[in-house]
């Protein structure tokens, strides 16, 4: 009788253990599932941007809004956008797309890959994936505020701001364009540790060029976006040392040395070796 009672007690105890384990598993599953319903960082960025930006860029984002976006961008990683960081020793620059069988010659001829995350009349959110040594030439962001964050790799950025009031050298040759004086705003190699950078319509390096030191990816948020209808067109330039044009040597340069200044001449839109990639990260809802 005692042995039967003991067996029954053991069975009851085992049943309760199994039931408790099942309830714990169910609670954990529900907890994880509920956790997965929290907004992605992509969604959080969008929500923050949509309340801070306007289609016209006027008024510009407040300093408080810029700081909040800046702080959130400092927390993002490649995985938040569905990217796999490239091996820094791999010069092919396409680890995040799985193109790992390129030969030595072909790896130097890979395009920059553009990933379109989200675009509306107030902002553009996108990623550029650069192979080593690829370049986006000197260009501007007229009337725009731009947030940039290196997601992986290293990128050389050379940036200028226009000297105000404008100092322009008119060209006397037929078909030639005049040169305008600009001041160097930065000439640095940026990495993940560099954090988020922000440029403004007239300060912070609104005109800049990119050169990939290693395979790298850059997240950009532009507000308002480029728009032909609104007159926000991208213009490309070539920069010349201040001493290049003898006629311009008398131009007052203000603070700094001559090496801090350059003459920028507008050029035709270059043929950029760029392709449209497929964004596989979290979508904006």
Automatic annotation (TrEMBL):
InterPro entries documented for this protein: PCO/ADO, RmlC-like_jellyroll, RmlC_Cupin_sf
Pfam families for this protein: PCO_ADO
CDD domains hit by this protein: cupin_ADO
Keywords: Iron, Metal-binding, Oxidoreductase
Keyword Repeat part of the UniProt annotation: no
Annotated signal peptide: none
Enzyme class: oxidoreductase
Any one Gene Ontology BP term: detection of hypoxia
Cofactor(s) the protein needs: Fe(2+)
EC number per UniProt: 1.13.11.20
TM ranges: none
Reaction(s) the record says it catalyses: L-cysteine + O2 = 3-sulfino-L-alanine + H(+)
Lineage: superkingdom: Eukaryota
Molecular function GO terms recorded: cysteine dioxygenase activity; metal ion binding
PANTHER family: 2-AMINOETHANETHIOL DIOXYGENASE (PTHR22966), PLANT CYSTEINE OXIDASE 3 (PTHR22966:SF29)
Protein family: Belongs to the cysteine dioxygenase family.
Protein name from the UniProt record: cysteine dioxygenase
């Amino acid at each position: 009788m005692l042995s039967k009672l003991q067996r029954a007690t053991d069975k009851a105890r085992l049943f309760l253990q199994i039931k408790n384990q099942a309830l714990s598993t169910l609670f954990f599953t529900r907890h994880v599932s509920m956790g997965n319903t929290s907004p992605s960082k992509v969604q959080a960025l969008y929500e923050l941007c949509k309340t801070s930006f306007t289609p016209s860029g006027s008024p510009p984002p407040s300093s408080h809004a810029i700081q909040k976006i800046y702080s959130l961008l400092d927390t993002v990683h490649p995985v938040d956008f569905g990217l796999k960081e490239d091996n820094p020793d791999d010069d092919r620059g396409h680890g995040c797309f799985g193109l790992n069988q390129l030969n030595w010659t072909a790896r130097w001829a890979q395009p920059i890959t553009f990933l379109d995350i989200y675009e509306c009349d107030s902002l553009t959110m996108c990623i550029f994936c650069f192979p080593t040594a690829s370049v986006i030439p000197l260009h501007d962001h007229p009337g725009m505020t731009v947030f940039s964050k290196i997601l992986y790799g290293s990128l050389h950025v050379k940036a200028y701001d226009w000297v105000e009031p404008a100092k322009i050298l008119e060209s006397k040759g037929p078909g030639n364009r005049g040169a305008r004086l600009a001041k160097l705003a930065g000439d640095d190699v940026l990495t993940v540790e560099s954090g988020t950078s922000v440029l403004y319509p007239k300060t912070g390096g609104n005109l800049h060029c990119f050169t990939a030191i290693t395979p790298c990816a850059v997240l950009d948020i532009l507000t308002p976006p480029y728009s032909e209808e609104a007159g926000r067109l991208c213009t490309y330039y070539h920069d010349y040392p201040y001493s290049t044009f003898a006629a311009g040597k008398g131009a007052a340069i203000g603070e700094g040395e001559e090496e801090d200044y350059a003459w920028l001449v507008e050029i035709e839109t270059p043929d950029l070796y760029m392709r449209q990639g497929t964004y596989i990260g979290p979508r904006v809802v």
